[in-house]
Amino acid sequence: MTKIVILTGAGISAESGLGTFRDKGGLWSLHKIEDVASPDGFSRDPDLVHRFYSARRQQAAQAVPNAAHAALARLERDWPGDVVIMTQNVDGLHEAAGAHRVLHMHGTLSGALCANCEHRWTHRRKCRLTPPAPPVARARPDVVWFGELPYHMDEILTHLEEADIFVSIGTSGQVYPAASFVQEARMQGAETIELNLEPSEISAAFTQHHYGPASEVVPQWVARLLPDPA
Ligand code: BV8
């Protein structure tokens, strides 16, 4: 059966009210990447980093999935073959929409990590990380910063090898290794589709493109695959 592998980026959550990174007014226009999304930035000013992620955690807690998240959850439920979502996003909107097979390659806002001993826990309160028992713990968000190895890479590469259809949704294709996934999939013979608001840095690598807001183009694409309404 046809295996569908989907990469999502910040654009799929934009209509749920969560800021993207590189669009006008995006997160990287408000903060320098190296200050809030790098290990050095965390060492220099952990409070700034905690404030940055606490604000995003509170925003994410108010956000609800949009029609694009719902369409992907329906595809996962009703498609006769394998569907895997690998997301660059740290929000939980895919799961909130009902998706189960979601790989968070850049971690999650709900995760916390001790910077000293790598102990992981789900933070107990929405807006603040509370360190685990050891007094020497240095709690940090369990997200993948620049210069850190993304999570689930072995599993992701296996899915890319097995993909019959690779779809990229709401990503600018500027961050690696995620931006290289389309080439990996193409080399294995997958059909490649870009669903985005506008052409991205990696548009030329795709054989199909559908541009527009994710809440429109994603349900339209899923409806073409699953013509019978659920
Ligand atoms: C690593 C943290 C190695 C969590 C993030 C090769 C070449 C060049 C550079 C590198 C390379 N390999 C590695 C690098 C360095 C670096 C990198 O890629 N730098 C870039 C800037 C050049 N990569 C890394 O450091 C990665 N690590 O490679 O490790 C390694 C190996 C061994 C051992 C140790 C290490 C780690 C990268 C992860 C960084 N963490 N986030 C968080 O705070 O969220 S990245 C951050 O940007 C996000 O997580 C997100 O994943 C990423 C990409 O952003 P997008 O999701 O694409 O969002 P963006 O705003 O850019 O675009 C939004 C898109 O949506 C736009 O196209 C827009 O048109 C569209 N859109 C907007 N609205 C809508 C819409 N589409 C549809 N509908 C709408 N309504």
Radius of gyration: 18 Å
In spatial order, strands of the major sheet run 3-2-1-7-8-9
Largest sheet: 6 strands, parallel
Output mean pLDDT. Answer: 91
The bound ligands are: ligand BV8
The dominant shape is globular
What is the number of E strands?
9
Helix/strand structural class = alpha/beta
Order of helices and strands: EHHHHHEHEEEEHEHEEH
Please report which band the strand proportion falls in: under 5%, 5-15%, 15-25%, 25-35%, 35-45% or over 45%.
15-25%
Low-confidence stretches: 125-129
Quote the CATH topology of the domain at 1-17 and 65-106 and 150-230: Rossmann fold
* Gap between N and C termini: 20 Å
Q: Into which percent range does the helicity of residues fall?
A: 25-40%
Q: What's the name of the CATH homologous superfamily of the domain at 1-17 and 65-106 and 150-230?
A: TPP-binding domain
CATH architecture of the domain at 1-17 and 65-106 and 150-230: 3-Layer(aba) Sandwich
* Total helical segments: 9
- Text of the CATH class of the domain at 1-17 and 65-106 and 150-230: Alpha Beta
Catalytic activity: N(6)-succinyl-L-lysyl-[protein] + NAD(+) + H2O = 2''-O-succinyl-ADP-D-ribose + nicotinamide + L-lysyl-[protein]; N(6)-acetyl-L-lysyl-[protein] + NAD(+) + H2O = 2''-O-acetyl-ADP-D-ribose + nicotinamide + L-lysyl-[protein]
Domain Deacetylase sirtuin-type: 1-228
Function: NAD-dependent lysine deacetylase and desuccinylase that specifically removes acetyl and succinyl groups on target proteins. Modulates the activities of several proteins which are inactive in their acylated form.
Binding site for substrate: 53, 56
